[in-house]
User: Which sequence fits this backbone?
């Protein structure tokens, strides 16, 4: 239990530094947290920090480790999808967003629906994009990016 407490302290410090934009320090603290007690969350957030440096390959690797640790945790699936989008791998990204939707432990389920909508938009699949935005808005009616995307497409189609 003591190792978990130490790991949690390191994770909280890393998250604070991360939110302040101090990525290198945050990465070091995420790694220390993982050294004491590896968790899906710590690996996912370490991946997020790597992605903010443009290091999408290492970000994906960290999320894959997170999934190995907890296959029910939805964040790393969605994050991998986002990293693949940044690498221009839209079809691969779709698979990961669909996995995020199915993950039992995921509070931000509207995000992969929104992300799927953005991919459909890029491909000119307007009706499918609208459907994904509707699903995102059903889960989170106040999610402004989905509201804006929905309005943009419906305006364009009229």
Assistant:
């Amino acid at each position: 239990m003591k190792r978990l407490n130490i790991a949690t302290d390191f994770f909280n410090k890393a998250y604070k530094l991360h939110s302040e934009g101090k990525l290198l320090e945050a990465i070091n603290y995420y790694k220390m947290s993982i050294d004491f007690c590896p968790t899906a969350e710590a690996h996912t957030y370490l991946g997020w920090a790597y992605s903010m440096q443009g290091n999408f390959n290492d970000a994906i690797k960290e999320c894959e480790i997170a999934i190995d640790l907890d296959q029910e945790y939805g964040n790393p699936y969605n994050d991998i999808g986002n990293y693949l989008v940044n690498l221009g791998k839209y079809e691969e990204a779709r698979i990961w967003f669909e996995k995020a939707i199915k993950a039992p432990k995921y509070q931000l389920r509207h995000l992969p629906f929104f992300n799927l909508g953005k991919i459909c938009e890029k491909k000119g699949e307007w009706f499918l994009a609208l459907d994904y935005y509707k699903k995102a808005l059903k889960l989170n009616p106040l999610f402004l990016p989905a509201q804006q995307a929905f309005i943009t497409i419906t305006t364009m189609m009229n």
Q: What stands out?
A: The first helix runs from residue 2 to 19.
